[in-house]
């Protein structure tokens, strides 16, 4: 398999000359999920993304396959039910990417706290029932104050009541996207990055039948024709709809900005992901997550109206997160100068706070009535006491009645439901949702797409997407540790030290054998064997076109290995220049882009202002 700059040119030629069944606009996790399912179902599929795959939002999440336990505070049960069940599905179809890692939620006696010790146990029990992990090693439990502080002695002890521990999963968001994209390409889909959707094309009846597109690299414009178009552009959903001259639709989204900051674990070490109220009674919650010798924390969750392509971390964002972190870990004394890296992304929230009905749209409000809430609590209490059955609890959940949504909600309160709409000209729009739910969102879209294509005389049967494994994930998901150990040994046999071999196996999964095949050509000047073969594989088989693509999204080097960037900088640029035949002007421009991205990620501008 090759998926490279060379095949990109061939793909663009095919997009121009091939009448498609489906054209997907947007190469984040939502578009990638639709693409793999469509291609696997035999639908002639094309996908264009104006930036690198996952560049806009899907590489900028909290990097968890998160169940959204805080939504149980408002009893948005539909969203939580979908997401916790989907975690297991995603682990099955991408077994080398999400990994279970229980979350600690310390509980403080504070005004407007999300949970107290009673409520968190109720929420976690419901959470486990929805996830189907009752009675397993991942079942929730509560711990008292002393045990919380034994686990995390740096936590603030004042007003600490105890804590809850429940199942969550760590994730590599950008890798999940590229593995879906690669599999869609392997299945015959036409996947092209850095191709912008310029204008929706219509037939004489005003129906959307294609897209005027622009190759961002060459500047060439061309037409792509398709029976159906689906808008999966995340925060850009409304911006693409605005480029459709046949539509006069109200905005669907309320984008919010989330910021994450990275420090070395020597500054603050946590043994497991930790999740707590911000401490300033604003309804926000903060994650603190250990990863690769670092600790990262976020998020800010504020409304955003700026440049969608280039959201930035502001001093106010840093001040907020440092205040929250230092409040909970009072001896850490983390400052701006301790921040090694950062990232910022937008969440494509549905403006109306509308849907806990995935792909249905508008069915729920994310709130429940007081009577429904009280009845559920009574039933759960009875269940805990042995006076009612699981069926009684499930019945109480099914009878939850929604109350009217609040007219004005804080960004952190807006539901993460998704909506699938058919526009007046036939273009489909799939918006909202979370990374955790991408497969389920895509499955709902594929069902509608197949129905619409059948009306046009094209017959397809949807693939079972719960068993459709992504590139790198073609192995038994119940045997992950042993399988990745096997791929580690393959990499070791190619000459890699054990730690490097383990890293490659965990990153590339069942593609590890393909990666190590690049070792036959020897090492690139200035790079280890691991970095050499990882880079060559990514350029040749992951459509990696720039140093930023590689160091930020194909790997986590820019985020979690900032101290290694100086050593990687020139060797990565030089090897990519050789592989991609850059002239000096191209090499200089991409070097400048890399340097600017590193400076921004490391918050050099804010640090200079403070100096």
TrEMBL record:
Location of the FAD dependent oxidoreductase domain: 21-353
What chemistry does it catalyse, as a reaction equation? sn-glycerol 3-phosphate + O2 = dihydroxyacetone phosphate + H2O2
Keywords of this entry: FAD, Flavoprotein, Glycerol metabolism, Oxidoreductase
Q: Does the keyword NADP apply?
A: no
Q: Which cofactor does it need?
A: FAD
Q: According to the UniProt record, what class of enzyme is this?
A: oxidoreductase
**E.C. number, please?**
1.1.3.21
Q: List, for all copies, the residue spans of the domain called Alpha-glycerophosphate oxidase C-terminal.
A: 465-587
Checking NCBIfam families in the record gives: glycerol3P_ox_1
Q: Which family does it belong to?
A: Belongs to the FAD-dependent glycerol-3-phosphate dehydrogenase family.
Recorded protein name is: Alpha-glycerophosphate oxidase
Source species, please?
Lacticaseibacillus suilingensis
List the taxonomic lineage.
Bacteria, Bacillati, Bacillota, Bacilli, Lactobacillales
Q: Which gene encodes it?
A: glpO
């Amino acid at each position: 398999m090759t998926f490279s700059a060379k095949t990109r040119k061939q793909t663009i030629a095919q997009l121009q000359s091939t009448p498609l069944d489906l054209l997907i606009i947007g190469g984040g996790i939502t578009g990638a999920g639709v693409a793999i399912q469509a291609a696997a179902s035999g639908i002639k599929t094309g996908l264009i993304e104006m930036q690198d795959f996952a560049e806009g939002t899907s590489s900028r999440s909290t990097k968890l396959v998160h169940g959204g336990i805080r939504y149980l505070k408002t009893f948005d049960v539909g969203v939580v039910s979908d997401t916790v069940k989907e975690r297991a599905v995603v682990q099955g179809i991408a077994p080398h990417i999400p990994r279970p890692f229980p979350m600690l939620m310390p509980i403080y006696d504070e005004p407007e706290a999300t949970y107290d010790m009673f409520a968190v146990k109720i929420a976690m029990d419901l959470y486990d029932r929805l996830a189907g992990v009752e009675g397993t090693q991942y079942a929730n439990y509560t711990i008292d104050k002393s045990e919380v502080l034994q686990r995390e002695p740096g936590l603030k002890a004042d007003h600490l009541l105890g804590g809850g521990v429940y199942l969550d999963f760590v994730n590599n968001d950008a890798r999940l996207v590229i593995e879906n994209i690669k599999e869609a390409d392997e299945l015959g889909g036409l996947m092209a990055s850095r191709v912008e959707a310029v204008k929706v094309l219509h037939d004489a009846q005003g129906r959307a039948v294609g897209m005027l597109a622009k190759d961002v690299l060459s500047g060439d414009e061309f037409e792509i024709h398709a029976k159906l178009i689906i808008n999966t552009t995340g925060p850009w959903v409304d911006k693409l709809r605005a480029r459709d001259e046949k539509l006069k639709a109200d905005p669907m989204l309320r984008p919010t900005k989330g910021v994450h900051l990275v420090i070395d674990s020597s500054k603050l070490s946590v043994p497991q992901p930790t999740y707590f109220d911000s401490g300033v009674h604003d309804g926000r919650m903060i994650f603190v997550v250990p990863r690769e010798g670092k600790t990262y924390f976020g998020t800010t969750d504020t409304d955003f109206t700026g440049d969608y392509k280039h959201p930035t971390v502001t001093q106010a964002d840093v001040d907020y997160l440092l205040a929250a972190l230092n409040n909970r870990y009072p001896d850490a004394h983390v400052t701006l100068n301790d921040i090694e890296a950062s990232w910022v992304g937008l969440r494509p929230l549905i403006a109306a706070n509308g849907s806990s009905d995935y792909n249905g749209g508008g069915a729920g409000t994310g709130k429940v009535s007081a009577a429904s809430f009280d009845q559920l609590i009574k039933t759960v209490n009875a269940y805990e006491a042995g006076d009612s059955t699981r069926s009684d609890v499930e019945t109480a959940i099914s009878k939850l009645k929604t109350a009217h949504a609040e007219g004005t909600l804080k960004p952190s309160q807006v539901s993460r439901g998704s909506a699938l709409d058919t526009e007046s000209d036939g273009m489909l729009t799939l918006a909202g949702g979370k990374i955790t739910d991408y497969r389920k969102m895509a499955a709902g879209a594929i069902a509608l797409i197949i129905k619409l294509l059948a009306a046009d005389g094209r017959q397809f049967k949807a693939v079972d997407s719960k068993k459709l494994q992504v590139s790198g994930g073609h192995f038994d998901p119940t045997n992950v540790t042993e399988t990745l150990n096997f791929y580690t040994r393959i990499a070791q046999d190619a000459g890699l030290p054990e730690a490097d071999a383990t890293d490659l196996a965990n990153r590339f999964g069942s593609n590890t054998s393909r990666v190590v095949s690049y070792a036959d050509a020897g090492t690139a000047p200035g790079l280890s064997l691991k970095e050499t073969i990882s880079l060559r594989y990514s350029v040749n088989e992951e459509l990696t076109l720039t140093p930023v693509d590689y160091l930020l999204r194909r790997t986590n080097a820019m985020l979690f290995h900032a101290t290694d960037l100086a050593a990687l900088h020139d060797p990565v640029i030089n090897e990519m220049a050789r592989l991609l035949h850059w002239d000096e002007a191209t090499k200089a421009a991409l070097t400048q882009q890399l340097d600017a991205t590193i400076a921004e990620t490391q918050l050099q501008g804010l640090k200079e202002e403070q100096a």
